Amino acid sequence: MGVLYDGDPNWVLFIGTTPDASNNSGIVSVETISAGDDFTAFPNPSNGIVNFNDAFDVTLYSIEGRMIKQYRNEKSIDVSYLPAGLYFLQNQNGQLIRLMKQ
C-alpha cells in the first residue's frame, strides 16, 4: 500500500485500497413521482397551441436559459409568437419538457 506522486502536488494516485476515501459511502435516494404528477405537452413539435395533461404553473425558457414568460394554472399555452427553435417548459414541481417550436 502506498501512494504514487505524479509531480503535481494537487493529484495523488493511490496504489492499493483507500478505506478512508471510498466512493461507496454516499447516500443514494430515489424520488418517487406518482403517475398523476406527469407533466406532458402536446403536440410537440408545435407551431401554435401547446396543451398539457393537467393545469400547471409553467415557465417558458429560451435555449439559453432566459425566462420568456410565466403562465399560471394553464392547461394550454399559445407559442405561435415564438421564432422556430428549441425551448424549455418547467412546471411548479421543477419538471422540464423540451419543446420544439416549428
What's the short story on this structure?
The chain contains no helices and 7 strands. The chain is mainly β. Strands 3, 4, 5, 6 and 7 form a 5-stranded antiparallel sheet that branches.
Radius of gyration: 23 Å
**Largest sheet geometry:** 5 strands, antiparallel
> Helix- and strand-based class?
mainly beta
Oligomer: single chain
Global shape: elongated
Supply the number of helical segments. Answer: 0
Report the sheet-strand fraction: over 45%
Proportion in helices: under 10%
User: N- to C-terminal separation?
Assistant: 60 Å
- The tally of strands reads 7
Query: Which residue ranges are poorly predicted, with pLDDT under 50 across at least 5 consecutive positions?
Result: none
Average pLDDT metric: 82
List the secondary-structure elements in sequence, H or E: EEEEEEE
